[in-house]
Write a structure and sequence with these properties.
Strand content: 15-25%
Number of helices: 5
Number of strands: 7
Largest sheet: 4 strands, antiparallel
Helix content: 40-55%
Structural class: alpha+beta
Radius of gyration: 23 Å
Distance between the termini: 66 Å
Strand order of the largest sheet: 1-2-3-4
C-alpha cells in the first residue's frame, strides 16, 4: 500500500522506454550535512547539559526526529525517477503520495541545459524544457546526472531526423 509505484507502470504499451534514472546524489548532500550537524549538536548537548530525565528525553527524541526526517528525505530521493520514452518525458515523485509530471515530446519547442561550477565538478546539471507558450507540468528537471548525454538523447528524440516514410522514399530521385 505504501510501496512506491514504479515509474515504468505509467509507460504505455505503445511507448518505448529510452532513459530511466534518478536524480544525482548531490541533491541529498544538504540533507546529509544538516542531519549530521543536528545529531552532533544534540549528542554534545546531551553530554554537557545537566543530567536529568527531561533533557535526556528531549535530546533523544530530537535526534530520533532528525534521523527519521533524514530517512524520509532519502526515501523521497530514492523513489523519484526520471523516465524518457519515445513519446514523452515523465518525472515520478513521492512514495506516500505519488505525483507524476509529464510532457509530451511533441510539445517541446526548446531544450536548454545548465551546469553550475558545482554541477561540473560533481557531474550533474539542469534541463529546462520549453513548449509553445504553455506552462506544462514538467518544465525543469534539476540534478540530472550526466547532463550532456541526457540532453543529446532527448534532443535526438525531439529534434532528430524522423524515420523515413513511404512518401519520403517515393519523393527521392532515382539513382541510375
Amino acid at each position: 500500500m505504501l510501496a512506491p509505484r514504479e515509474a515504468d507502470e505509467y509507460v504505455l504499451p505503445t511507448e518505448r522506454r529510452v532513459i530511466r534514472l534518478r536524480q544525482h546524489w548531490a541533491v541529498v548532500v544538504k540533507d546529509v550535512f544538516e542531519a549530521a550537524v543536528l545529531v552532533t549538536l544534540l549528542v554534545v548537548a546531551a553530554e554537557y547539559l545537566p543530567h536529568n530525565v527531561v533533557l535526556s528525553n528531549l535530546t533523544f527524541y530530537g535526534a530520533l526526529f532528525v534521523v527519521l526526517r533524514f530517512s524520509y528525505q532519502i526515501g523521497l530521493w530514492w523513489a523519484e525517477r526520471i523516465v524518457v520514452t519515445d513519446k514523452r518525458i515523465m518525472l515520478s515523485q513521492g512514495f506516500i503520495t505519488s505525483r507524476i509530471g509529464m510532457m509530451p515530446l511533441s510539445k517541446v519547442t526548446d531544450l536548454t541545459y545548465e551546469r553550475s561550477v558545482t554541477g561540473r565538478a560533481l557531474g550533474y546539471g539542469t534541463l529546462v524544457i520549453e513548449s509553445a507558450g504553455q506552462i506544462q507540468a514538467l518544465n525543469r528537471i534539476s540534478y540530472v546526472p550526466q547532463p550532456e548525454e541526457f540532453y543529446r538523447a532527448v534532443s535526438e528524440l525531439v529534434f532528430g531526423e524522423k524515420r523515413q516514410t513511404r512518401s519520403n522514399l517515393l519523393s527521392r530521385p532515382k539513382r541510375r
